[in-house]
Design brief:
With about 400 residues, the chain is α/β, with parallel strands linked by helices. The chain contains 18 helices and 9 strands.
Length: about 400
């Protein structure tokens, strides 16, 4: 494109800037305007994406037809299908008349779908059909409608990331992305930042009849070094603040520092790989790690309880065997003495059962004590929870704690 043509376009749409990336965007927009190809404009929030669809429409064969700019993110999910594709009378509560929707009203014209990445999946399927066949069915209707609409879409999210997360249809992305246009962020536009500041300051001075603020050379350098996460929108906001609140009309770095956020978060880019959206991948990884560790702790607890229960069963079994062996297993007979009639004392001696060895009782007590200690440790000393875990009453737990000297 010739330099004179480019300057005419900038003057017509009040576009300020001379950076190469911006000139390339305008060149592509003018080249694609005479066609009916779909255009997808990608860029961060606040870079001025809304200007390009207007340039495309005004320089296309459809320039005499209607142009509608629709913010898809501002329309509620429950009504967006009706807004775009229309509805028939009585299709839902409040539908008192037929409505053609934007695709019906904008027939032969151009629709600019801003924030297209926010469309629900069901609406994306309807939009894909319109792009492929030019046909759609109004909400609640049965008759197929035809439309001839040029679609220009824009987004500030990472569409490829949204596709991988199942939030955006891949086939719709390729339909919209016939001609991609990448809008440059303000931080990459160099001296355009100073030119835009001058424009906004001049507009404020004319509107409110005040002296225009002027930047010193050091302030200009400071302005260009800033990251501008809010892009042109943020620059305009800060310029307006300075014009109204600053008592000095010559803006030095010291004055400028009072209006530019200096905290680390405000100067960090929230860019999302590379064109746009915040990903919750890190948050999911942290959550998965916490759940994995929790699951491991529960499994360890179950395994430990199972081992303790097995040890307790073994001790009880050994005690039972010891008692049975003492009462029922006769000692080996080496000789056959003459039978002697048993006396009363002998009869009583034969019925006497020797108790289990003291060591085994001590082992059982030690094991019970260990179980109580571990249950209390796992429940941070909460006796009620420990009792519930062991399957005993609070009263029994307190009695055993006192028995083992753990009640202090």
């Amino acid at each position: 494109m010739k330099s004179s043509e480019l300057q005419n376009i900038k003057q017509r749409y009040n576009i300020v800037g001379n950076c190469e990336a911006l000139n390339h965007v305008l060149d592509v927009a003018l080249q694609v305007a005479p066609t009916d190809l779909s255009v997808l404009i990608i860029g961060e929030s606040g870079v001025g994406k809304e200007i390009i669809p207007r340039v495309i429409h005004d320089n296309s064969p459809r320039r005499r037809e209607k142009y509608f700019a629709i913010n898809c993110g501002s329309i509620p999910e429950g009504t967006i299908d009706s807004e775009l594709f229309g509805h028939v009378k009585g299709s839902y509560t409040g539908a008192v008349n037929d409505s053609p929707g934007y695709f019906g009203v904008a027939n032969k014209g151009t629709l600019f779908l801003d924030e297209v990445g926010e469309l629900p999946l069901a609406t994306q399927a309807r939009l894909l059909r319109v792009l492929e066949t030019g046909e759609y069915i109004p909400v609640g209707g049965t008759e197929i409608k035809k439309t001839d609409v040029r679609i220009v879409a824009a987004t500030n999210v990472n569409i490829r990331q949204a596709i991988s997360e199942g939030r955006f249809r891949e086939d719709l992305y390729y339909r919209l992305n016939s001609i991609p246009i990448q809008m440059p962020p303000l931080r990459d536009r160099g001296e355009d930042i100073v030119l835009l500041f001058r424009l906004f300051a001049m507009q404020m001075a004319e509107k409110y009849r005040m002296d225009r603020v002027v930047l010193t050379e050091e302030a200009k350098q400071m302005l260009m070094r800033y990251k501008w996460p809010g892009n042109v929108r943020q620059l305009k906001n800060i310029t307006e603040q300075i014009s109204v609140l600053s008592k000095e009309r010559t803006i030095t770095p010291q004055v400028l520092a009072q209006f530019i956020p200096q905290d680390r978060e405000s100067t960090q880019l929230t860019v999302i790989n590379p064109s746009g959206d915040h990903s919750f991948e890190n948050e999911r990884e942290i959550l998965y790690k916490i759940l994995f560790e929790l699951r491991g702790n529960v499994n360890d607890m179950r395994r430990e309880m199972s081992q303790l229960k097995k040890q307790l069963d073994d001790v009880q079994s050994n005690n039972s065997h010891a008692i049975i062996g003492t009462t029922s297993t006769p000692a080996p007979i080496t000789s056959m003495p003459a039978p002697i009639a048993p006396t009363t004392e002998d009869a009583e001696a034969e019925e006497y059962v020797e108790p289990a060895p003291e060591q085994e009782n001590l082992n059982l007590n030690d094991l019970s004590r260990q179980m109580l200690e571990k249950a209390l440790e796992r429940n941070n000393g909460n006796r009620k929870k420990a009792a519930m875990e062991l399957g005993i009453s609070d009263r029994t737990l307190y009695r055993r704690l006192k028995q083992y000297g753990l009640d202090k």
